[in-house]
Amino acid sequence: MKMSAEAKVGLFVLLGIALLVYMSLKVGGFQFGGAEGYRLYVSFDSAAGLDQNSSVRVAGVEIGRVKEILLKDNKAQLVLEIKEGIKVGRDFTALLTTKGLLGEKYLELIPGAPGAPALKDGDEITNTTSYADMDKLITVLTDVSVDIKEVTGSLSSVIGGKDGEATLRNIINNIEELSFRVNSLVAKNDEKLGNVLTNLDEFSALLKNDGPAISSDIRAAIKNINDSLVKTSENLNLLVQENRGNLKEGVDNLKVASLSLNQAMENLNKVTKDVGPGLTETVGSLSSITRKIDKGEGTLGRLINDPIMHENINKTVTGINNYLTKAESFRMYLGYRSEYLFDASDAKGYFSLKIQPKADKYYLFEIVDDPRGKRKKETREITTGGTTTTQTETKVSDAIKFSAQIAKRFKNLVVRGGIIESTGGAGVDYYLFKDRFKLSGEAFDLNKKGKAHLKAYATYYINKFFHLNAGIDDFVDKEFRSGFVGVGLQFEDDDLKYLLSSGVGAVTSAVK
Fold first, then answer.
1. Burial (0-12, 13-18, 19+ Cβ within 10 Å), 15
2. H/E run at residue 27
3. One domain for residues 363 and 264
4. Pairing mode, if any, of strands 37-44 and 124-125?
5. Full residue range of the structural domain in which residue 387 is found
6. What gap in Å lies between CA 490 and CA 353, rounded to an integer?
7. Per-residue b/e over 22-34, b at no fewer than 16 CB within 10 Å?
8. pLDDT for 48-59, tens place per residue?
9. Which of 95, 129, 163 marks a domain boundary?
10. Could you tell me which of 284, 370, 348, 328 has the C-alpha nearest to residue 488?
11. Which of 19, 15, 21 shows the shortest CA–CA distance to 465?
12. pLDDT of residue 157
């Protein structure tokens, strides 16, 4: 039996789809059906920037996804779906982090001790840690700048003044004089110190050579010294007991002297001028720097004293935070789906690009290969044998169409509109069962004579990559009404990076 051209085209399309599905599953390691695994819970003070269905990783390897983000007791509770066979220990630590500076935010699980008991379905990860936050960092830097300003103010009040100059000059002179006296003392007694060392050396040699002969005398002398030390200690104890009151009075006098010394240091701290000879350059430079900082001169002075500088830094950091937040929430999806039209006995293809800057907003661009093309009815009169008849024909043109829509999500309802298949139109989508099932309706080609092009269909998402759909296309037009079934696939930007890198690696290995 010879196959028709339509049957060959349909068989070719089905084989192509099957081959594409097989290759995607082979490269990415994905499976049909609902996600297998178990659920864990973890709570954070804030999950800002983390989206639903974000990655859960251990040592950089994906082991699951964030299925839900809930608000519980004023904290963000994450519902994690972990792959079957992956064990998460009870001492694992959860950390919110990002892929590089502008990468997407994901949840990293840091392993604990080997052999720790594993969590079961429904358990909660209790160990969490916070990540670097630019707002907290600028707050800490502001506090540090205030502390630096206080320190420089103290230095400025300590260094300088005529009284301080005189006092510090006297201290330096006393140190120089003491050093001179020590040097003179060592020089004058250098010979005596040499004699002492010589005597010690001779005494050591004597002990070494005639040890047995004089050892008894030395032992007796050592015993006498020990007895004298014991008696001296007893006398000291007796003396302390008899003069305990005088000792207490002496300690009180020491406390008073310490207070007087503190007051003298406070008076020294109040001095505010450069130090005298010998240290003029060093101390003067330090004093100059502290005065400039205190007056707000120079970069450091403006940073510490100028409130406008603080405000500009805060605005800059706020702008960086806003930019990073937007960059982390940006998503891009690339997809293809095919719908087999039963009445036309042919397949209709959609190549789509979805750009999602926010979780509740996206832009959809599509190139549509419609086997029925754009339809236009034309009426003409035909005269045969003096008889005129009216004949209506439908002309088909422009099989390639395009769509450009903007969509906004309100909880489970999505409203979209723009250009649909090269004509103005609008559509709605309603999600069910945690976004696994979708009901959709579209109305476009509103300027068409007669009735608009209406389409209704349902979509079931097998997993994050593959989906099935079925419905009725152009159901108000009896001539072109057709039921259809279809299959499609969709990849996120990170998935495309993985597939492309795997493909390049395979080609490189084959070439080698």
1. exposed
2. helix 5-28
3. no
4. parallel
5. 330-511
6. 9
7. eebeeeeebeeee
8. 888 888 999 999
9. 129
10. 348
11. 21
12. 62
- H helix runs in 430-492, sequence order: none
Shared domain check, 470 and 397: yes
**256 and 211 in a common domain:** yes
Q: List the one residue out of 65, 67, 71, 63 whose CA is nearest residue 89.
A: 63
Note whether residue 385 is domain-resident. Answer: yes
- Say how many C-beta atoms besides its own lie within 10 A of residue 216's C-beta: 9
Residues 338 and 441 in one domain: yes
Do 498 and 369 lie in a common domain? yes
> How far, in Å, CA of 262 to CA of 254, rounded?
12
Q: Is the pLDDT confidence value at 353 over 90? A: yes
pLDDT category at 436 given cuts 50, 70, 90 is very high
- State how far the alpha carbon of 417 is from the alpha carbons of 246, 368, 458, in Å: 99, 16, 18
CATH, residue 430: 2.40.160
**Residue 433 clears pLDDT 80, i.e. is over it:** yes
Residue that terminates a domain, selected from 71, 96, 129: 129
What per-residue confidence (pLDDT) applies to 93?
Answer: 94
In a domain? residue 5:
no
What are 164's two structure tokens?
Answer: 């301080």
Tell me how many domains the chain contains: 3
Which residue in 65, 62, 89, 66 sits closest to 78, CA to CA? 66
Q: Which tokens sit at 428?
A: 């709605």
On the question of pLDDT at 28 being above 60, the answer is: no
Q: What distance in Å separates the CA atoms of residue 88 and residue 57, rounded to the nearest whole number? A: 11
Q: How many Å apart are CA 480 and CA 473, to the nearest integer?
A: 8
Question: Are 224 and 188 members of one domain?
Answer: yes
Non-local (6+) Cβ contacts of 105 within 8 A are 49, 50, 51, 54, 96, 97, 98, 328
In a domain, 344, yes or no: yes
Q: How many CA atoms lie within 13 A of 197 on its CB side?
A: 6
- Specify the DSSP element, H or E, that contains 487: strand 482-492
- Would strands 61-72 and 55-58 be described as parallel, antiparallel, or unpaired? antiparallel
77 vs 97: CA distance, rounded Å? 16
Let me know whether 335 and 472 are in one domain.
yes
Residues 196-202, mean pLDDT to the nearest whole number: 81
Helix (H), strand (E), coil (C) string for 313-372? HHHHHHHHHHHHHHHHHCEEEEEEEEEEECCCCEEEEEEEEEEEEECCEEEEEEEEECCC
Residue 310 in any domain: the answer is: no
Tens-digit pLDDT profile for residues 306-322: 777 767 777 777 777 66
Of residues 511 and 382, the one with the higher pLDDT is 382
Structure-token pair, residue 138: 């600028």
Backbone angles phi, psi at 336, to 5 degrees: -145, 140
Q: What percent of the chain has pLDDT over 90?
A: 24
One domain, residues 125 and 230: no
Pairing verdict, β 437-444 and 466-473: unpaired
What pairing do the DSSP bridges indicate for beta strands 331-341 and 346-358? Answer: antiparallel
